[in-house]
Design brief:
Elements lengths: L4 H9 L11 E7 L3 H13 E8 L23 H10 L3 H7 L3 E3 L4 E5 L2 E2 L9 E3 L2 H13 L4 E5 L1 E8 L2 E9 L2 E6 L2 E4 L7 H7 L7 E16 L9 E5 L10 E7 L3 E9 L8 H10 L3 H7 L3 E16 L11 E3 L5 E2 L7 H17 L9 H23 L12 H14 L4 H11 L11 H14 L1
Parallel strand pairs: 1-2, 1-11, 2-7, 4-13, 11-17
Antiparallel strand pairs: 3-6, 4-5, 8-9, 9-10, 12-15, 12-16, 13-14, 14-15, 16-18
Helix pairs in contact: 2-5, 2-9, 3-9, 7-8, 9-10, 11-13
């Protein structure tokens, strides 16, 4: 009997690397060297004799990468994702802090909902604050130190198949075309992955692509941080659609090199903060006082903007025909509204799916359906949470799932209760961090507790 999604998610959060490497495949090729690709390579290093990571960018060079256009924006590392990174890379916290990352324990995190201060839950869900290049760079450093992981700077152009098995990829290196052979190819090419085209060109089915229009506009700016040890290192403020604000939310994090990184976001034609003056004004006028204090510091550089048009999901698990020797991870499978900060945590759980699949000693001549079944649980959870929240936006017009009106009313009650009720906030935080399945919120006890808390608050 298959396990319930809740048990699958719990088991994936409990996955640890094996005590010793035990190769079950010869050579693995990962196409894409961003966070999802590097986490996949880390897992593959335990189960493959050798791992090759192929990327158009030179992965030996630190800093911002052209292949990560959103890398200049503020990134949240959810506590669940932080725990996964610590499992994959023991000592990750200490090394990150040594390189400038800022610790963000519960007491140092503040959040607001429509201007109301939310309770900080006193639990063990620590996290880190830092720029995307720092966190991604540290992950890459740790992976590339592994003796059986190598990289090549090249552009992958297609699959190489032998019957029903993928046996490698074609690559362009300096204008020359070659083949990188493999026993397992991992697609980590991101939301613009070309794998669907490659499958169709090789005579296979394309996975169904689901989209939800989001039209999210980001603006991020850096400010000088005079405090070396600020009381609050992560501060977030969200506006619900009922407030009719043209700014969906804002946040600022303490990051490396004595800086604050601040972000604000709006939907559709609302593009707040595109200029330095507008950015500062909105921080002062539309958010709690802490944001105004940040606006008073020296701005470092220009405001950087980014647009997220839609969330995307490719349903590989539903394909009737799929070749062996091939899997897909990260944004190449599902990319969500980035305002919810799920990307790195979801990628880490995809890596846990890959570890579970390989640990079971799969038959290399058969499609990796067990992997995609596990991954579907992770994708379903993250997708349902982000799209349900997006559907509350006035400009988003479906598709609405069955029972949406009732479920959205209950969701609003739970979110409102997190402002004043510690037990509800603790459960909600665990779900948002992808550590616990959302079904844990849909119990009579939780719903009644939220309703009572809201009645008391009113």
């Amino acid at each position: 009997m298959p396990l319930s999604p809740a048990r699958v998610l719990a088991a994936l959060n409990a996955v640890r690397p094996p005590d010793r490497t035990s190769p079950v495949i010869g050579r693995a090729v990962v196409v894409g060297g961003s966070v999802a690709g590097m986490l996949a390579a880390r897992v593959l290093s335990d189960y493959a004799e050798s791992v090759l990571v192929v990327d158009r960018d030179d992965l030996q060079v630190n800093g911002e990468r052209p292949g990560v256009p959103q890398g200049t924006q503020l990134h949240a590392l959810l506590p669940g994702g932080f725990l996964q990174l610590e499992h994959l890379f023991p000592g990750f916290r200490e090394q990150a802090v040594a390189q400038g990352a800022i610790e963000a324990p519960p007491a140092a995190r503040r959040s607001y909902l429509d201007g109301r201060r939310k309770i900080v839950v006193p639990d063990d869900a620590d996290s880190l604050a830092g720029t995307r290049p720092l966190l991604e760079g540290l992950i890459r450093q740790r992976v590339l130190r592994l003796p059986n992981v190598k990289t090549v700077t090249a552009r992958a152009t297609g699959l190489v198949c032998d019957g029903a098995v993928v046996t490698g990829i074609r690559c362009d290196v300096g204008g020359m075309t070659g083949v990188e052979s493999s026993d397992l190819v991992v697609d980590a090419m991101g939301r613009s992955s070309r794998l669907s085209d490659w499958l169709e060109q090789a005579g296979w089915e394309r996975p169904a692509l689901r989209r939800m229009t989001v039209n999210l506009n980001y603006a991020t700016a850096l400010f000088r941080r005079p405090e070396t040890d600020p009381e609050a290192t992560v501060v977030m403020a969200l506006h619900t659609p009922e407030t009719r604000s043209d700014v969906a939310g804002a946040a600022f994090f303490a990051v490396e090199d004595g800086r604050w990184m601040a972000m604000m976001a709006g939907y559709e034609d609302n593009r707040p903060g595109r200029t330095a003056d507008d950015f500062r004004r909105r921080l002062r006028e539309q958010f709690p006082p802490e944001f105004g204090e940040i606006a008073g510091h020296e701005m470092l550089g220009d405001v950087r903007t980014y647009r997220h048009a839609d969330s995307r999901r490719r349903d590989f698990h539903a394909l009737r025909r799929f070749p062996a020797g091939l899997v897909s991870v990260g944004d190449a499978v599902a990319s969500f509204n980035p305002v919810y900060g799920q990307g790195i945590t979801a990628a880490a759980l995809h890596a846990a799916c890959l570890s579970t699949y390989l640990r079971e000693g799969p038959d290399p001549s058969l499609p990796a359906r067990r992997f995609f079944d596990l991954q579907k649980v992770v994708v379903d959870v993250a997708w349902s949470m982000s799209t349900s929240a997006d559907l509350a936006q006035p400009h988003v017009d479906g598709p609405y799932p069955r029972g949406y009106r009732l479920s959205s009313w209950f969701s609003r009650q739970i979110v409102e209760a997190t402002v004043t009720d510690v037990p509800t906030a603790r459960r909600f935080n665990d779900v948002v961090s992808l550590r616990v399945h959302p079904r844990s919120l849909a119990t009579p006890a939780v719903l009644l507790g939220a309703l009572r808390a809201n009645l008391r608050a009113r």
